[in-house]
Amino acid sequence: MPLFIKTRALLAVLSTAAFVVTSATAFAQSGGKPAEPPKAAADSAQKDNQKKIDEIAEASRTLTGAAGHPECVWLGRRVVALLWRDDLDTAFRHLDLYDRFGCPGAHIQATFRCLIRQGNIDPKAQETLNGRVHSCWLNPALEPEAAPAAAAAPAPATPAPQPPAR
Questions:
Q1: Environment class of residue 133 by beta-carbon count within 10 Å: exposed (0-12), middle (13-18) or buried (19+)?
Q2: Which of 4, 14, 97, 138 gets the most CB atoms within 10 Å of its CB?
Q3: DSSP letter (8 states) at residue 26
């Protein structure tokens, strides 16, 4: 029995020593300072949150009735974006909540109609889906942007020069 107890004690001492050595190495690698979140990421997150708050406040000022309530704006914009992405199951679950808050269903329909009339989003453009949904939410009667005049009007066809007659 004494050999068994000595083996257990030796095993406990070795595992404690291994733990101390590895934790000391990890502490030395970290520099002894607690990890701090990157300041740029925190600033970016704060700006995004402030932008969302400002957009909802703008909708509350611009729209009259229930469509301007913050919960209707938030849920309604999500429903329209989900419909655009063809995520119908999630959109209908959000739409149930939208209806439960007493928000106007006709505004969802008008906003989605506006979004469809705008056409596909050009991947090279700076505009995002959320930005387009927000502008359509504020003004469902928004007309699609006209194509640049140079692209819309084809260049006049000029006849090929004729060789001189002999």
A1: buried
A2: 138
A3: H
pLDDT in tens, 135-152: 999 999 988 875 444 444
The single-letter code of the amino acid at 104 is P
Cα 101 from Cα 54, distance rounded (Å): 21
**Do the beta carbons of residue 113 and residue 140 sit within 8 Å?**
yes
Q: Report the run of H or E that residue 162 belongs to, with start and end.
A: none
Nearest to 107 by CA among 140, 81, 82, 58: 140
Angle between helices 129-138 and 39-62 (to 10 degrees): 20
101 confidence band (pLDDT: 50, 70, 90): very high
Rounded Cα distance, 130 and 104, in Å: 20
pTM, rounded to two decimals:
0.60
